[in-house]
Amino acid sequence: MRWFGFRPSTLVTMCGIVGYVGPNADAKAIDVVMEGLARLEYRGYDSAGVALVADGAIASEKRAGKLVNLRSAIEAHPLPDSSTAIGHTRWATHGGPTDANAHPHRGGEDGKLALVHNGIIENFHALKKGLIAEGVEFRSETDTEVVAHLLAKAYAAQGDLTAAMQTVVADLEGAFTLLAVHADQAGTVVGARRNSPLVVGLGEGENFLGSDVAAFIGYTRQALELAQDQIVTITPESVTVMNFDGTPAEGKHYEVTWDAAAAEKGGYATFMEKEINEQPHAVADTLLGRTDEDGRLVLDEMDITEEEFRAIDKIVIVACGTASYAGFVAKYAVEHWTRIPVAVELAHEFRYSDPVVDDKTLVVSISQSGETMDTLMAVKHAKELGARTLSICNTHGSTIPRESDAVLYTHAGPEIAVASTKAFLAQITACYILGLYLAQLRGGTYAEDAQAVMKELSEVPAKLEELLGSMKRVKEIARFMADTRSVLFLGRNVGYPVAMEGALKLKELAYIHAEGFAAGELKHGPIALIDAGQPVFIVVPGPDTPHGLHDKVVSNIQEIRARGARTLVIAEEGDDKVEPFADEVIRIPHTSPLLAPLLAVVPLQVFALHLSTAKGLDVDQPRNLAKSVTVE
Ligand code: AGP
């Protein structure tokens, strides 16, 4: 596909997009779009805007800054009633977050066309030059406005918005979701997508478009998944899908299981706090329905045969950020149970490496959003190399599962906070389910263990509930440490990726230096960092962990304490060996060593959340970050 040649700029982009057409009598388009934007604000929030079709004209408003600025502007200058509208929350890529660069952008001298866009048009410079040569005047620095003018020009020639969209997308290179309305075509919104999310919401006498289901979840749970390079035209009574080449197509219908409340904060101060407290459900729901009446593991939507699974002789996990740490945790357990070598690769590194991968390699991608371009490109790279691909994903119908041979959905529910928490636990759980499935399928030493481990996994949600109820001291420590400039995290074995995840949480939420190390690595350099009062979290394995790892980590605590570190120890209930060397002991319930990460990470999540709060920072939308990084 053309987009394979696409080398998106290494900019982060993702935006919230909403489109609506409904009965003229209701004229509620602006309310629907503003509600959708409010639910999508996490996707990108440096400006926002709406455009609607009313009385043969386009009425629009847009403002830099958060959605509240747009809302105030509309209150000050009310927009006319309408039944056709589009809306957008932006994360800047080309052009800073200004009113002029905010979407929607108008096309044509008459401004009768309005467009919103998520993604990056890679060839917009050349297209812009052509338009300027034709005398078009630009009002913004964005790539989007180029498309708006191209669409207006095509509409002027063809008189139909769908046909105009089809003409224009043929000239675009890059990743994009586009929504357009035209003053002369009330009751119609046209969308197009290439390597960027777009879903259809199906209503009664009304229809919706959104960059994800949160855009319309308050109105309908019936959704249509669109495939690559497709155009969709919605009116109040119809949804028409076609491929870029004009051939008719069918979207894939599914029911959204999240309800409107799930996308709200549910009484917590932040989405992150809500999602940390949803972790028992995230683990429990991900375990649901995974075993048949005989206790054998069953996996959904597998297009990989049992024979192919049996032939697998290598597993490569590809992911980014927190999802990659879930993979690092899973590596220890999956190798132990299946005796298959497991490599964990950062997706953006795997993508440009020359890995040893063939048709006996199972490449497992882990992604909460299912839209992370780095991970998507790694999956495509793996497929080109002949690997079988399996996606572990939390977002139904997103791009990465669709590009994979098989999918194992986590069921963590919508994760709105940029900092991933419940998805992380659900990802580890799903990886364990996969590992146990493979162990059972392939026989061998641990095949019989699968049921026992699944039973122990089923006990984790209750342990999480207990643990979440005992975080008072962690919150106090966080507030006490609000001025901290640097925190280190140590762990061994499965505790090592937990240490890295704890460090990442602190970096992205409190904007301070934090680093996770393998505790055994201390003496090879990092111990030089230990100075008087240096705070260090240490994830201590349970006393019954093999290879004497518990005592080795206790020794590490002694080493750093002797050099002045402030030791914050995460240890199992009843483990009194750590007491003499700990400035603080944070207790977690006992569980078997390989399942311990599902518990040990929680105090680190809570610590980061409350230190960020103590610093007065925006917990749910940390600076410079976005929830879904949809270009490389
Ligand atoms: C985690 O807190 C971050 N938000 C980030 O590292 C995230 O895990 C990463 O970008 C991967 O996102 P994905 O799971 O949606 O692919």
Number of domains: 3
Bound molecules: 2-deoxy-2-amino glucitol-6-phosphate
Per CATH, the superfamily of the largest domain is Aminohydrolase, N-terminal nucleophile (Ntn) domain
The CATH architecture of the largest domain: 4-Layer Sandwich
Structural class of the helix and strand makeup? Answer: alpha/beta
Number of helices: 19
Largest β sheet strand count, sense and barrel closure: 8 strands, antiparallel
Q: Mean of residue pLDDT?
A: 91
Stretches where pLDDT is under 50 for at least 5 consecutive residues are 1-13
Distance between the termini: 17 Å
- The CATH class label of the largest domain is Alpha Beta
Q: What is the CA-based Rg, rounded? A: 26 Å
Strand proportion: 15-25%
Question: How would you describe this structure to a colleague?
Answer:
Strand 5 and strand 6 form a beta hairpin. Helix 3 crosses helix 4, helix 7 packs antiparallel against helix 15 and helix 9 packs antiparallel against helix 17. It is built from 19 helices and 25 strands. It has 632 residues and is an alpha/beta fold. The chain is 34% helix and 22% strand. The N terminus is likely disordered. The protein has three domains: 242 residues, Glutamine Phosphoribosylpyrophosphate, subunit 1, domain 1 (4-Layer Sandwich); 188 residues, Glucose-6-phosphate isomerase like protein, domain 1 (Rossmann fold), CATH 3.40.50.10490; 146 residues, Rossmann fold. The site of 2-deoxy-2-amino glucitol-6-phosphate has 15 residues, from helix 9.
